[in-house]
Design brief:
Elements (H helix, E strand, L loop, with lengths): L1 E2 L2 E2 L4 E3 L8 H9 L4 E8 L8 H6 L10 E5 L3 H13 L4 E6 L4 H4 L11 H14 L4 E6 L9 H11 L4 E4 L14 H9 L4 E4 L5 H11 L3 E4 L9 H11 L8 H19 L1 H16 L5 H8 L5 H15 L12 H4 L1
Parallel strand pairs: 3-4, 3-10, 4-5, 5-6, 6-7, 7-8, 8-9, 9-10
Antiparallel strand pairs: 1-2
Length: 337
């Protein structure tokens, strides 16, 4: 897949997720086979750029190209300024957020709330595209609600503005993450525009990735929640798409190694206090469904230091290894408790 001058190694993309797709997570997913990863969204409000949170989100040290930064806001001039700021900080592709359904974002008329105002969408896209000399991409939903699906209209506005790739989540803003994603809208958009289209929503297995690609005709798939605690999903999908065969489940020792390295990256990136707290959700995702994980996660949330977390994770996986060489996700919920 090609976005501007950047040729991706495959068509598997990590979705931007607030509080998740920080630099350590993006680097890990790329290492595990993702062709591209989009950052957490950065506010267009320049008053926030000096905060620790924004500085971390603008930190791309050592990150594999292309570096993609997502910006969010509702004012064309501020969005253009934010794009320039992030390009100066190393962004090689700017992504515009018009897909976030969160109330705190939509209440400022940003994110997917913008889908209600097609004229403003055009102004924002024009402003950002003309402000920077790097590719600009866009992420949207199918519309504001089920009665107002306007993804095709937005897609045409985007194409005319010079947007170089369009990601579509197969739900409306009103749907949030409830129910099932639909792909008919994505397929319709793909047949009516010439820019690359990226399908997003409920893609959580290699088979689902192939089905969505074939059904929609999309150029790529974007994976979000399914990669939480399972960054190896990208290599699984890549292998399946190439061979029509499945990779074996990861071995206990490998998952242990991946998680430990992820934790150390989080501690280094955030420092001990924040790193330990941010690590808790990742540990929970990695261990969900494993034998004894419920009790382990409860105890883990009480730990306060890096050393305590590392020791607890080591003990858990050493004990888990006794259940078999391969990582076994237990279907019986009582056994997994």
């Amino acid at each position: 897949m090609q976005i501007g001058p950047y040729s991706l190694m495959n068509n598997l993309i990590v979705a931007p997720m607030a509080g998740v797709t920080d630099r350590p997570f993006r680097q890990l997913c790329k290492k595990m086979g993702a062709g591209m990863a989009v950052s957490e969204m950065v506010s267009s409000n320049s008053l926030l750029w000096g905060s620790d949170k924004t500085r971390r989100r603008a930190n791309h040290d050592g990150e594999v190209d292309p570096i993609v930064v997502q910006i969010a806001g509702a004012d064309p001039a501020m969005m253009a300024e934010a794009a320039c700021y992030n390009v100066e900080k190393g962004a090689q592709i700017i992504d515009i957020n018009m897909g976030c359904p969160a109330k705190k974002i939509c209440n400022t008329m940003a994110g997917s709330a913008l889908l209600q105002n097609e004229q403003l969408v055009g102004k924002i896209l024009d402003a950002v595209v003309h402000a920077v000399d790097v590719p600009v991409t866009l992420k949207i939903r199918t519309g504001w609600d089920l009665k107002h699906k306007n993804a095709l209209v937005i897609a045409r506005i985007a194409e005319n503005a010079g947007i170089q790739a369009l990601a579509i989540h197969g739900r409306t803003r009103a749907c949030a993450y409830a129910g099932h994603a639909e792909y008919d809208t994505i397929a319709t958009v793909k047949t009516n525009v010439k820019i690359p289209v990226i399908a997003n929503g409920d893609i959580d297995t290699p088979e689902k990735a192939r089905i969505v690609l074939e059904y929609t005709g999309a150029d790529a798939v974007m994976i979000g929640r399914a990669a939480q605690g399972r960054p190896w999903i990208f290599r699984e999908i890549s292998y399946y798409l190439a061979t029509n065969n499945y990779l074996p489940l990861p071995e206990v020792t490998e998952i242990h190694h991946v998680l430990i390295n992820h934790l150390y990256d989080l501690y280094d990136f955030y420092g001990e206090y924040s790193g330990v707290r941010i690590a808790r959700k990742h540990i929970s995702w990695y261990t969900k469904g494993l034998v004894g994980s419920a009790a382990f996660r409860h105890a883990m949330n009480q730990l306060q230091t890096c050393g305590q977390q590392i020791s607890a994770v080591n003990d858990f996986f050493i004990n888990l290894a006794g259940y078999g060489q391969r990582l076994a996700y237990i279907e019986n919920k009582e056994l997994a408790a």
